[in-house]
Design goal:
The structure is a single chain. It is built from 16 helices and no strands. The chain is mainly alpha-helical. The chain folds into two domains: 162 residues, Serine Threonine Protein Phosphatase 5, Tetratricopeptide repeat, CATH 1.25.40; 102 residues, Serine Threonine Protein Phosphatase 5, Tetratricopeptide repeat (Alpha Horseshoe). Helix 2 runs antiparallel to helix 9 and helix 6 runs antiparallel to helix 7. The longest helix is centred in the last third of the chain and has 19 residues.
Length: 277
């Protein structure tokens, strides 16, 4: 993805942040492991699911169940979600590939398989699989949001926004669809529209720290550093928020001044989690 923003940040970094779509719509598992719903998918994840230790334990548990019956739907979906939360994207894609072989027309399986492929950077294949992850007359807004993220990664921002718009018709005000729409605007240098959309996303009841992190990032790109710190303080201490924004400023200054930006500045830890999920 070409991400030649006004600030000159390195291509790829903001693009990986944009993959919150795969965390939001795809890894509803990070906050709600049972995000797919339905009786076949258990909701037994850690309540907060915020630490690697919890996810490792969850992966170990579901991995044992998966090993007893590879390709079984419930075990595959839950195991793959845990693997994705741990950034083990290759393994997650392999797990869901086996499930898709056994259930090639199961919408839930295809949805999770498409999300795993997208996480793993297999965008063309993800795009194909996701088109088959819901019936034409009943589109799944979470899948639509992932499809939008894939299109943004492929550089088709207008196409991406059509998916986000469709998702928002079904679930008006959805924080994750709005978040990804805001990031899509950021990718095309429309920072004012990105800020407005991310503020909408942050005001929603489902908004989490990742959404607010993205708003803080866009505010920083606009030079609104004090506002960015205010937003960051909702999820971290004042000192951490200040350091977070300062790291972004260093990257911006490094790139605009001809330096190496990311190579010389500490990546803000609050943004790393977004890129990895």
């Amino acid at each position: 993805m070409s991400l030649a923003l006004v600030t000159g940040l390195l291509p790829g970094w903001l693009g990986r942040i944009a993959l919150i779509a795969l965390a939001a719509a795809g890894l509803a598992g990070c906050a709600e492991i049972g995000g797919l719903g339905g009786p076949t998918v258990q909701s037994a994840a850690p309540a907060a699911a915020s630490g690697d230790e919890q996810w490792r334990a969850y992966a170990a548990d579901w991995g044992k169940r998966y090993d007893q019956n590879p390709g079984e739907k419930t075990a595959s979906i839950n195991y793959a979600r845990a693997l994705r939360a741990l950034n083990r994207f290759d393994e997650a894609a392999a797990v869901m590939r086996a499930a898709a072989v056994q259930a090639p027309q199961d919408y839930e399986v295809l949805g999770e398989y498409g999300k795993a492929l997208a996480d793993n950077g297999q965008l063309a294949q993800a795009k194909d699989v996701l088109t088959r992850a819901y019936p034409d007359d009943r589109p799944d807004p979470t899948i639509l949001t992932v499809q939008g993220a894939v299109e943004d990664e492929l550089g088709d921002h207008e196409g991406a926004r059509k998916f986000y718009a469709e998702a928002l018709k079904i679930t008006p005000g959805d924080a994750f669809a709005l978040n990804n729409l805001g990031l899509s605007y950021a990718l095309t240098k429309d920072l004012s529209q990105a800020e407005s959309t991310l503020r909408q996303a942050s005001a929603g009841p489902r908004a989490d720290a990742r959404v607010r992190n993205n708003l803080a990032l866009v505010l920083s790109l606009e030079g609104k550093y004090a506002q960015a710190e205010d937003v960051s303080r909702q999820d971290m201490s004042a000192d951490a928020a200040r350091a977070n924004v300062q790291a972004i400023r260093q990257m911006i200054a490094g790139r605009s001044g001809g330096g190496h930006g990311l190579a010389s500045a500490r990546r803000p830890p609050s943004l790393t989690a977004i890129a990895s999920q």
